[in-house]
Specification:
This protein is an alpha+beta fold. The protein contains seven helices and twelve strands. It has helices at about 20-30, 80-85, 180-185, 195-200, 215-225, 230-240, 255-265; strands spanning about 10-15, 35, 45-55, 70, 95-110, 120-130, 135, 140, 150, 160, 165-175, 190. Strands 1, 2, 3, 4, 5, 6, 7, 8, 9, 10, 11 and 12 form a twelve-stranded antiparallel beta sheet that branches. The longest helix has 13 residues, at about 215-225. The radius of gyration is 19 Å and the shape is globular. It starts with 11 loop residues before the first strand and ends with a helix.
Length: about 270
């Protein structure tokens, strides 16, 4: 349990002097093949992800695994690494990742419920954003402006609405430590405002642009199709006809090789 004075609140703005030009340059150099669609596609509609520090199983448990490792992309991203390492403004980040949201995408109303995340601060550092991108928590909306770092109570109900440009955030989870305490002591606490349109969008169940449904769900579906006598090529054709979202953020069609790799990987 977080101690008095350091409980999570929505919304905190930290003035860390983030270098947007360096963030943009390092983000732009990341190869396309590193990007996947979100494991939580029923919540993160139109969201791509790249795990920077976390588990190594290739599943959603990498975001809350007890054993973590750095992704090789951090070798070419020294500034991003400096923000998440022990000498960074918030101390050592246990988990770190990049999320990118397509224009007009949403993250639906949800809570971050994993036990490991309960006593960790989730920090956002915007890399690319637009004035119509808002995070909504406890029914209040706020735009996370670039140049700052931000946090909110991710155990509250929250979601995201994006404007007509891509939104990219560096996001990381930090246990309470002296550096984080110093940042909390110096931060600005902002309330946001209630915007009915935002609440309507993040409660919408139409899922206009769903992302990947997650390894477990897709693996179960593949198993059911295989039990019906389908081979990898037939399963890939079935999924393409049904327009099942791909794991690959840049992919456009399922292939037999994708089906085989997913079938062979552990859950």
């Amino acid at each position: 349990m977080l101690p008095d004075g350091y409980q999570k609140q929505s919304f905190r703005r930290f003035d860390i002097g983030a270098d947007i030009d360096r963030l943009n340059a390092e983000f732009s150099d990341i190869p396309q093949n590193y990007w996947a669609n979100s494991y939580w596609g029923s919540i993160h509609c139109s969201v791509g992800m790249l795990l920077l520090r976390g588990g190594t199983s290739g599943t959603q448990s990498d975001f809350y695994s007890s054993e973590v490792a750095d992704h090789e992309v951090l070798e070419q991203a020294p500034y991003i690494r400096s923000l998440i390492d022990k000498d960074g403004p918030f101390g050592f980040a246990k988990y770190a990742f990049l999320f990118r949201m397509r224009p007009n995408g949403i993250t639906k109303l949800h809570k971050d419920t994993m036990d490991r995340w309960t006593d960790m601060y989730r920090i956002h550092v915007p890399i690319i954003t637009n004035p119509d991108a808002h995070l909504i928590a406890d029914g209040r909306s706020i735009h996370f402006a670039a140049g700052h770092a931000w946090s909110f109570d991710n155990q509250s109900e929250h979601g995201v609405v994006n404007g007509d440009q891509e939104r990219v955030h560096l996001i990381f989870d930090v246990d309470l430590n002296d550096r984080l305490k110093d940042q909390i002591d110096a931060c600005q606490l902002l309330k946001g405002e209630r915007v009915a349109e935002h609440l309507e969008r993040i409660k919408d169940d139409s899922m206009e642009k769903p992302s990947y449904f997650g390894d477990d769900v897709v693996r179960q579906g593949i198993g059911q199709l295989r039990n019906r006598g389908m081979n990898n090529a037939q399963i890939a054709s079935f999924m393409n006809n049904k327009k099942v979202p791909l794991k690959d953020y840049y992919g456009d069609r399922w292939t037999s090789d994708m089906i085989e790799r997913l079938s062979s990987s552990s859950g």
